[in-house]
Write a structure and sequence with these properties.
By secondary structure, this protein is α+β, with helices and mostly antiparallel strands. The relative contact order is 0.20. The radius of gyration is 13 Å and the shape is globular. It is built from four helices and six strands. It has a single domain, classed as Nuclear Transport Factor 2, Chain: A. Helix content is about 30%, strand content about 35%.
Length: about 120
């Protein structure tokens, strides 16, 4: 993935979050995705920090959209790595977020690791 493709992907991902378009958002993830975020423990019953699989991730994102209905992400930068991208953006409650997406051969995230400037 080159810088232009990564930027297009990040902009589409951000737009899907900001419009609460869950179907468009889920297009960015592989069926076997593993998603790590401190926010998971806030929105999941089990108190874990990892979500496994696209179906479970969809439910987690649905909960997030319901819990933070007025939040609007603001994309700042997108970095390109080897089979990965990093999105730097303003997240819920004004927190700075850095989100690493490891991509499969189809450009879908198979692993995501989220990092925030403040504790969640």
């Amino acid at each position: 993935m080159d810088a232009i493709q990564a930027e297009q992907m990040a902009k589409a991902w951000t737009e899907a979050w900001n419009t609460h378009d869950l179907d468009a958002l889920m297009e960015h993830y592989a069926e076997n995705v593993v998603f790590h975020s401190p926010f998971v423990k806030l929105l999941q019953v089990k108190g874990e920090t990892t979500v496994c699989g696209k179906t479970a991730l969809r439910e987690y994102f649905r909960r997030g959209m319901e819990a933070y209905p007025h939040s609007r992400f603001q994309l700042h930068r997108t970095g390109v790595g080897v089979d990965s991208i990093v999105m730097n953006y303003i997240s819920v409650n004004g927190m700075l977020a850095n989100e690493l997406h490891v991509l499969n051969e189809d450009g879908k995230a198979i692993e995501v690791r989220c990092h925030y400037s403040d504790s969640v």
